Amino acid sequence: MVKKTWLKGIGLFLSLAMLAGCSGQSKPTAGAGQDSNEIVIGANFELSGDVATYGTSSLNAAMIAFDEINAKGGINGKKIRVVKYDNKSDKTESMNVATRLITQDKVSAIIGPVTSGNTLGVVPVVNSKKVPVLTPTATNPDVTIDPNTKKVNEYVFRACFLDSFQGRAAAEFGLKKGKKAVVLVSQADEYSKGLAKFFKEGFTAGGGTIVSEEAFNKDDNDYRAILTKVKSEEPDVIYLPAYYEVVAKIVKQARELGIKAAFVGGDGWDSPKLVEVAGKDVLNNCFFTNHYTPEDPDPAVQSFVKAYKEKYGQTPDALAALAYDGARLLADAIQRAGSTDPEKIKEALAATKDFPAITGKFTLNENHDPVKDIVIIELKDGKQVVSEKIKSK
Amino acid sequence: MDVFIQQLINGLSLGSIYALIALGYTMVYGIIRLINFAHGDVYMVGAYVGFWATTQGWGFLPALVLSMVVSAILGVVIERLAYRRLRNSPKIAVLITAIGVSFLLENGGVLALGAKIRTFPNVFPEVQYHFFNGAVVITNRQLVIMVVTTLLMLLLQYVVHKTKTGKAMRAVSHDTQAAMLMGINVDNTISATFAIGSALAAAAGVLVGIYYNAINPYMGIMPGLKAFVAAVVGGIGVIPGAFVGGISLGVIEALVSGYGQSLYRDAVAFALLIIILIVKPSGLFGSNVREKV
Which of B132, B139, B213 to mutate to test the interface with A (most CBs of A within 10 A)? Predict the structure, then answer.
C-alpha cells in the first residue's frame, strides 16, 4: 500500500512536469498541426480488469466503425488513426490515459470509457483540457451534468439512454400488463436500485400500485421463500432490474412455484446465459428494456452484426452496438465540423440531430444525452423478439 | 395456511442441503477439533464432478456416486497434505491452513474452470405436484433432495454405530490417546472421517446443481458458513445435531423471508448462532453424555 502511494506520487509528479512542458509551448494545439493527412482519435477502454469483456467488445465494435470509414476514403479525405490504451477498469488509470491521449498523442477527440465510474474520472481532465470525450455506455446522470453546479459538462457526450428513462419506459410498458406490480431489487447494487426507483415513480404516476418491494442477495441460490410471498400478493407484473445470472435463477424458481405474472427487466438481462440457465419455456412472458437487438431486421443493424461476427466470431452485445454508434457519431461530428480542432468537434457533437444510429435514431439534447427510442424485447421460446419501441420524451 | 406449508417445503429442501454439509463439519470437528473451512469448497468440487458426469450423459445416481467418491478422495488428500503434519501444532495454525485450502480450491477452480456459471443438464424431467388448487407446489426435485438426505443420514448412523470403522471413529473422538493404545489406527480413522464427510458434501453439491441448475467456483462460501452455523446450533461434534440444525436453519430462513423482511434473513441466521452460543454453548444436542464422531 505504501509502495503504491509512493508510485502514484511519482506519477503525479511526472504528469505535472508534463503539463508544465506543454504550457511552455507556444500553444497546445491538440489535434490540429499534426500530420495533416490524418485524424487522431483516442480510445480509452477497459481492456483488462473487472469489466474487461465490456471494454473489449466496445473497442472491437468501434474499430469496425473506424475501419469502415477509412475503407470509404476517410473523413474529408483524411484517414482516421486510433490510439488505444487500456485503462485497466480503474478510475485513476482512466484519468491518466485521458491525460496521456490529450497531451502526448494530441488527439482530436476521445471515445470511452465504458462504465460510469471510469468516465467520471475522465470528466475533469477533458473539461480542463478542452477535448471532447464520447462515452458509448455510461448511464449515470452525473456523467454529463456536474452534480455540484448542475451545469452541463461541456466536453462530455454519450450515446446511450439514461437509467431514469429505462426505468420509466419499463413502467410504461408494465402498466399495459396490469396495475399491480411487485419490485424485486438486488440489494447493494446501485444499478438495480436506480432502475427500481424510476420504475416505481413511473408506475405509480401512471395509476398503478406497487404491492410490495423485496430485496434479495444476488449471491444466493434459493429465492423460493421471497417468491412464495410474492405469489400470495398476486401481482400482474414483477419488475426485476438485475443481471442475467440471478434473473435466470429467480424467474425459473418463480415459474416452478406457479407464478404466471409478466417479468420485466433492464439491459442487464441481455446475455445468452439467461436462456441457457433458465430454459426457454420458463422465460415466456418475460420482457426487458434494451438498447438494441441483434435480431432487428434493419439492414444497418444486420450489416454490423455480420461484420462483427465475421471479425470476432461472436454476436455483438448492446455495448458493442453502442460503441459502434459512438464511433460513427464521432466521425460524423468531425465531418460536420470540417476540422480536427477539438473545439469545433465539440460544437458539432452538441448540435447532433437525427443521427442514424443502429441503436435508434437520436438527437443529443441540451444535456448532451441522446433522445432515442428504447426497445422492449420479449423472450419468445428463448428467442429475442422486438415487442415494441417506446419513444423518448 | 397454504403459504405456510409452501414456505415449510421451501425451508425443508434448503435445510436438507445445509444438513448434508453440516454433517461433514461436525464429524471432522468431533474427531480432530478442527473447523474445516475448506469443507464448503469440497461441496463445490462435488458439484463440478457431478456436472462433468451428467454432461457426459451419466444418469443421476451414477453421477452422484462418482462425485461422492472423487470428493472423498479429495477430502483424504487434503487431510494428508495439509492437516496431518500440523496435528501437534497449535489449533490456530490448522485453522489458518484450512482457510488457505479453501482459498486454494476456490481460486484454483476459477483458474481451471473459469468464473462463469455452468448450467447443469436436466438429469430428470421436472414433475410438479399441486395441492390446494395449485397454492402449494412441490417438485420431484425437492422430494429427491429430501429423500436422498434422509437416506444418507440413516446410512451414516448405520456406519457410525454398527460398523468397525464407526466404532473406531467414536473411540478416537472420545479419547485419541487411549484409542491409539488400544491398537486403533488413528490416522486411518481420521482419513475415513474426512472421506465420509466430503462424500456427503459432494452429494449436497450434486443435489444443488440439479435443484438450482447453476454452479460456479464460489458457490461453496455462503452455504459453507450457513452449514457451520447449523452444526454449531445442533451442537458441534454431534451427528443428529447437525441434521436437526441444518433443517431448522433452512426452515427459519424461509419463514423469515416469507413473513418478515427478506433482508433480515442472514442477520437472523447469524443472530441465532450468537444466541445459542450465549445460552447453550454446547448447542442443542451437546449434552453431557456426548456421542461424537
Answer: B213
Cα nearest neighbour of A50 on chain B: B115
Read off the pLDDT of residues B23-68 as tens digits, 9 standing for 90 and up: 999 999 988 888 899 999 999 999 999 999 999 989 899 999 999 9
Contacts of A256 in chain B (CB under 8 A): 126, 128, 137, 139
Q: Which residue of chain A is at minimal alpha-carbon distance from B121?
A: A277
Cβ-contact A158, A369 below 8 angstroms: yes
Q: Which of A232, A256, A273 sits opposite B117 (nearest CB)?
A: A273
A contact test, residue of B4, B5, B10, B141 with most A CBs within 10 A: B10
CA distances from A311 to A63, A79, A175, A307, A314 (A): 11, 21, 41, 6, 8
pLDDT in tens, chain A (393 residues): 444 555 555 555 555 444 444 443 434 444 444 567 899 999 999 988 777 888 999 999 999 999 999 999 999 889 999 999 999 888 999 999 999 999 999 999 999 899 888 999 999 999 999 999 999 998 888 899 988 898 999 999 999 988 888 899 999 999 999 999 999 988 877 788 889 999 999 999 999 999 999 888 877 888 988 999 899 889 999 999 988 888 998 999 999 888 999 999 998 888 777 888 888 888 999 999 998 888 888 899 999 999 999 999 988 988 999 999 999 999 999 999 999 999 999 999 999 999 999 998 899 999 999 988 888 999 988 888 888 888 776
Kindly state whether B257 is in contact with chain A, defined as any CB-CB distance less than 8 angstroms: yes
The 10s digit of each residue's pLDDT in B143-173 is 999 999 999 999 999 999 999 999 999 999 8
| Location of each CATH 3.40.50.2300 domain in chain A | 32-161+300-361, 164-290+375-390
- Whole-angstrom distance, CA of residue A323 vs CA of residue A315: 14
Predicted confidence at residue A388, as pLDDT, reads: 84
Nearest-neighbour CA in chain A from B274: distance (Å): 22
Q: How far is A215 from chain B (nearest CA, A)?
A: 6
- Are A225 and B254 inside 8 Å of each other by CB? yes
CB contact under 8 A, B258 and A187: no
Supply the CATH classification number for the domain A164-290+375-390: 3.40.50.2300
Question: Is B212 in contact with A249 (Cβ distance < 8 A)?
Answer: yes
Asked if A248 lies within 8 A of B214 by C-beta distance, the reply is yes
The count of residues in chain B is 293
**Mapped to the 3 state alphabet, what secondary structure does chain B carry?**
CHHHHHHHHHHHHHHHHHHHHHHHHHHHHHHHCCCCCCHHHHHHHHHHHHHHHHHCCCCHHHHHHHHHHHHHHHHHHHHHHHHHHHCCCCHHHHHHHHHHHHHHHHHHHHHHHCCCCEECCCCCCCCEEEECCCCEEEEHHHHHHHHHHHHHHHHHHHHHHHCHHHHHHHHHHHCHHHHHHCCCCHHHHHHHHHHHHHHHHHHHHHHHHHHHCEECCCCCHHHHHHHHHHHHHHCCCEHHHHHHHHHHHHHHHHHHHHHCCHHHHHHHHHHHHHHHHHHCCCCCCCCCCCCEC
| Chain A contact for B130 (CB, 8 A cutoff) | yes
Cβ–Cβ contact B7 with A under 8 A: yes
What is the CATH code for A32-161+300-361? 3.40.50.2300
Distance CA A283, CA A382 (A): 7
> How close, in Å, is residue A331 to chain B by CA atoms?
36
